[in-house]
Amino acid sequence: MVGKAKSPVSGGDWEKQLSPEYKKKKASEGLPGIANLELEGDLLDALTYESTDEGIEIGWFGDQAAKADGHNNFSGKSSLPRRQALPDVDQEFIPAIQKEIEKIIADAIADGVEPVESDFDSVTTKEELYDTLSEYFPGLSRAEIRSAISRSPNFAAFLDDNSLMGLL
Q1: What average pLDDT does the segment 4-28 reach?
Q2: What is the spatial distance between Cα 98 and Cα 121, in angstroms, rounded to a whole number?
Q3: Phi, psi for residue 51 in degrees, rounded to 5
Q4: Distance of CA 116 to the CA centre of its chain
Q5: Burial code of 87-98, b = ≥16 C-beta within 10 A, e = fewer?
Q6: What is the dihedral angle through the alpha carbons of 14, 20, 23, 27, rounded to the nearest 10 degrees?
Q7: 152 to each of 39, 55, 96, how far by Cα in Å?
């Protein structure tokens, strides 16, 4: 989306006007004359995450942070046209991107936990299985849990080895 001058937050087009000087500079680099946060590649390449006590934070944390603030205007001090590439605290990405992010998170949970056999010893019903799995996958729906496990060979094998896959 960003490469097509569209916000991954709103889905809408960014203000497409570039200054004549900047448009000329992009053209001299063989790049399209659109607002796509791409000149040398440093900004988008620097988008990363950091672990926090609350989970993870996605953003720009190094020497590209000021440039990112200029385009996203997180500080409210930028005079550049806003090119929102990341959601504000009270926002999410467009649904298609948000869904993929949630899959990545669910997969990371599935790959990052080792199921404990004793947690599943008394499981005999689908309800009991999902009650137990919800401890491993807090906040995820049954469909999200099922999908994450189906993409996790280790977790799926564990359930299969314990004759629980049929309850999933």
Answers
A1: 88
A2: 35
A3: -75, 140
A4: 28
A5: beeeeebbeeee
A6: 160
A7: 38, 21, 22
